[in-house]
Design a protein that fits this description.
By secondary structure, the protein is an alpha+beta fold. It has three helices and three strands, in the order E-H-H-E-E-H. A hairpin with a 5-residue loop joins strand 2 and strand 3. The longest helix has about 35 residues.
Amino acid sequence: SGPTRFGALRRQIDGISSRVLTERLRDLEEKGFIVRDYKPTIPPAVTYGLTKRMQEIGAALDKLDELAHKWQEEDSKRARRSAKAM
């Protein structure tokens, strides 16, 4: 959805502390997956965006997420059938 500010990212990720999010963002920036744009305003405006590298791997991650949800649903159905058989 385009470049996002730190506060918006934190609100989108349940249960993450500012410290942990900062560490993760620094790591992703160091590895070339995101870009950090800093503007020295008051307060400072910092936005994060995806690099081409992240966009390329994003499709694979989306497919893995889809597959994980599919398997979770299959496992849940199997568990319900087993519980009914008992």
